[in-house]
């Protein structure tokens, strides 16, 4: 879109009547500064537009209101055009994702501004932001909607869930930061219910963000069931709720890029999971989507090392849930040396110790997952395992039949499933044993190994199981993972959170 610049004011070119009035035609990215109009409190602003745009940062094509109406709100100070790409000393900055890396800016011959136009590659999956792209933001009053007594849930919290729930509620009320460190199987979702109810009562806007679409899809119906009166938006690539205003938003971290200063409470689930922990863009998005006075709550089973230290030394506000909901201790991994397993597999044989473990499971009919650090070696190993049972399968992130295989595993049609770290979290099979082959590989970080061990003994019917790390040399990550689990069990026993 192009603008006519008159004095300091920007008028969309399409709204300029007749021949050019005084002024020059510019791209928004070329002006030094966008002047914001003061709010005219007498102006009867459009409530639908307020609800739609409040807390967002959107492309023109994402806003289903006419440019006439939008511009009228700009002139009365309720909406502002922001620069999609800002020129900075020595380069550019993306107004949406915060990107400053020069190699992530490309230029092309743009049909909109009929010029060579720079755009951001980093956030291109959300629609292209260019030098001629304005981002629309709401500057008027924020809608406040309060909901009283909205939680419809008849379940009960375990004592440690109740403790965490109280801490979460407090963080939401006081708008502070909190880390909830809960072991795999502690039951994180239920702990959020009361805090969210409190937030709704206070008229706060809450986001639950997670790196993975699967988690959004799993959480949404659970929250809709217990908060039937609260509008809940469920956002991920391709979702349909993008255009509704909701006090509670369950979203992938990517979709946070479309928000600005929107949320009074930001809850980030699985903060350690790829890609959030690694991705600066998403950290920027989560930061930019919060209001200045907001609560920030992290949920994780496997915080990074520095956070663990801060928790234990009292430097970080945190609550630790060392026990599972079903009150059984966490299964502890056994370390078994398996020699040079790569060489073995390349030579067409399964390492002896792994073979023995595998045959025991196959013989007793207990289902198992066997983790491998890399796809290639796993695929090489698959036929070796299949010689014993042709129902054995493998799965990895690029496998098109991934969902079907996981389902077949759930239906017990697959006795043993070989997998990469794709199944390290999120999936629950009720009664399985787990092996890691090549546990010394760099792929298996402390947090990955804790997550993998967390697959075992999830259900109250089958709270135990075997978890074995087959290795060609112990690593610090392996030892730290085991110590972390041992410490959780010790804490759980001393607080009487586990039986026996
Ligand atoms: Zn960008
Ligand atoms: Zn352009």
UniProtKB/TrEMBL annotation:
DNA-binding is among the record's keywords: yes
Helicase ATP-binding domain location: 169-321
A Pfam family matched in the record: Helicase_C
Domain Helicase C-terminal stretches: 349-500
The UniProt record lists the keyword Plastid: no
Keywords: ATP-binding, DNA-binding, Helicase, Hydrolase, Nucleotide-binding
PROSITE patterns for this protein: HELICASE_ATP_BIND_1 (PS51192), HELICASE_CTER (PS51194)
GO MF annotation: an example: helicase activity
PANTHER family listed in its UniProt record: COMF OPERON PROTEIN 1, PRIMOSOMAL PROTEIN N
The protein, known as: DEAD/DEAH box helicase
